[in-house]
Amino acid sequence: MMPAPPSLPLLAALLDAERALGRLAEAMRDGELRARLWADAARREAFAGARLDGVAVDPTDFMIATLEPDLVPTAGRSEAQAAHALWLGARTAQGERAPGPAAATETPVGAAAAAWQAVADLESLLAESLPAGDEPLSETDGDGTAPAWTPPWLEGIWRATQTGVSGRDPARLAFSDRQRAEARALLRRADDALGCPALYGGVLALDLLLRPPADPAWAAPLARLIAPAALARACRVPEVWLPASPTLLSERTGMRLALSAGAADWQLWLANAVAEAAHRERRRAAALDQAASGWRRRVGARRSNSRLPDVLDFLFTQPALTVRRLQQHLDTTFRGAQLMVDELVEAGILREVTQRALDRVFVAVELMP
């Protein structure tokens, strides 16, 4: 049974949100910028998600944990491990969809065009569903990996979060029969919601995934982690990954008021939240681009065989590092890696955040969550 058409206030909010998503999709045509934003979004999702779960994680401890949880000072290690687990889950949720630099043959159409088509779909209030929820829940792709929006994909996200907390071998972690059945039911219900046109289906899916209390209860953190995939499916913008937890954390009072006012107000709040989140991600993408330009200016002109540009690019993916980790990444000498770290510290790009002689950790301060 199809839900009733959206009210006029909700329809107006959906159109605003679709346009904001379309502009974000256009910005994400740049594959390098897209990769930076996705990595940054996963960190922000994990940090905010931990705070929503009542974990008072320190930003610096969390950044160290993304490198190696055992390097976090003992006093904050358990909290940092909880956020680290969500970070692993976020990166797994992004999965193979996490993009790299755009290929030279990439065409300037696709996701953005689909986003603007979604706007047109809403404006005409199509009665028929879009294809987003029609595909069967296949178990694996041809190469044996779990495709997005399938029970094995959801199990992989859960396994990543459990590994991040317990440190257990992920090969030994698996859904129980009950969890597997509940995961399939959750994705089916979300697919039913996604059968509605464009972002209206996305908002209904977010209603299902984010409305407390979670059903099933064990899936509450996972529901936040898969919410970006629901929006991407609804609006056909695979280049967009819109983290849910930062908005839920920053707008907790408004969220509670909307929930208490009833379903219509809650859905209107979700539509407005999507628009604001899309605007926020565009601003963050611009800030990351400015950071990259600023870093290059600070280190100045380099000889052609300098590895510092590679280090600057690496920081967007791994903004916390040790000299040894950088040495391994660049396949260089320890002395060479140490000189590059020293230069970045002097330029104000890196800051040492541990006070010890061995395994000193350095963090790119502009990428703190």
What does this structure look like?
It is a single chain. A 3-stranded antiparallel beta sheet has the order 1-3-2. It is built from 15 helices and 3 strands. The protein has 369 residues and is mostly helical. The protein is globular and about 65 Å long. It has 2 domains: 8-291, no CATH class; 302-367, Winged helix-like DNA-binding domain superfamily/Winged helix DNA-binding domain (Arc Repressor Mutant, subunit A, Orthogonal Bundle), CATH 1.10.10.10. The chain has helices at 8-27, 31-52, 59-67, 77-94, 111-124, 151-166, 177-194, 198-210, 220-235, 245-250, 252-261, 263-299, 308-317, 323-330, 334-346; strands at 320-321, 350-352, 362-364.
* Beta-strand percentage range: under 5%
Mean pLDDT, all residues: 86
Number of helices: 15
Which strand order does the major sheet show?
Answer: 1-3-2
The largest pleated sheet is described as:
3 strands, antiparallel
Note the topology.
Blueprint: H1 8-27, H2 31-52, H3 59-67, H4 77-94, H5 111-124, H6 151-166, H7 177-194, H8 198-210, H9 220-235, H10 245-250, H11 252-261, H12 263-299, H13 308-317, E1 320-321, H14 323-330, H15 334-346, E2 350-352, E3 362-364
Antiparallel strand pairs: 1-3, 2-3
The gist of it:
The protein is mostly helical.
Q: Which keywords apply here?
A:
mainly alpha; 2 domains; 369 residues; Arc Repressor Mutant, subunit A; 62% helix; 15 helices; 3 strands; single chain
